[in-house]
Amino acid sequence: MTQAQQTMPLFPLSGHVLPGGTMRLRIFEPRYIRMVKEACNGTSCRPIGMCMLNENGDRDLNTHIHPIGTAATIIDFEQLPDGLLGITVAGQYLFRIADIQVQDDGLRVGHTDDVSAWPSQALSAADKFLAEQLVEIYNTYPELAVAYNNEQLQRADWVCLRWLELVPVSAQTKQELLQAPTADAALTFLRDLVIESKQDNEQQAAG
């Protein structure tokens, strides 16, 4: 393994968490209960790999997991009303899966290489509406909200990551945008998507 490569358990999901974001999860499968216990068996929690599902992939070949994932740490535990284990994870950084091994109970473990983060860039005045609508969504649906401050809302890279966690576009599209060297491609994509959605809503309201 290279210096930047590490091994971590993989948790493929239909929901997505990216660096700087958080997600609450219900854990009930034995393999993932073991994953949580082993990740947090010391004074701190080691990262787990939050991965996007590939609908066109083959589970037997492990291609049902997209290669770009998010290393996340467990920041909270709770016992849910139904008795299941609840955890909250926080996304730390992106990685690329180099190889996957399947353990006896079906838990997949990946050898991963770090992926460079987008450089920080300011959100232009013309794109401020993306931050404003993001805050509006968080206020309307607090279960989706992440902790944020005004400085983060002024960063195009941070705002784009939060939108990519939310928008119902294909995981393949998100994978392509996350592999870009900067947030510019994601910014253009999300700008057009949000404007189009707003126009559609206005037309429906007028009709």
From TrEMBL:
<protein>
    <submittedName>
        <fullName>Peptidase S16</fullName>
    </submittedName>
</protein>
<dbReference type="Pfam" id="PF02190">
    <property type="entry name" value="LON_substr_bdg"/>
</dbReference>
<dbReference type="InterPro" id="IPR046336">
    <property type="entry name" value="Lon_prtase_N_sf"/>
</dbReference>
<dbReference type="InterPro" id="IPR015947">
    <property type="entry name" value="PUA-like_sf"/>
</dbReference>
<feature type="domain" description="Lon N-terminal">
    <location>
        <begin position="7"/>
        <end position="196"/>
    </location>
</feature>
<dbReference type="InterPro" id="IPR003111">
    <property type="entry name" value="Lon_prtase_N"/>
</dbReference>
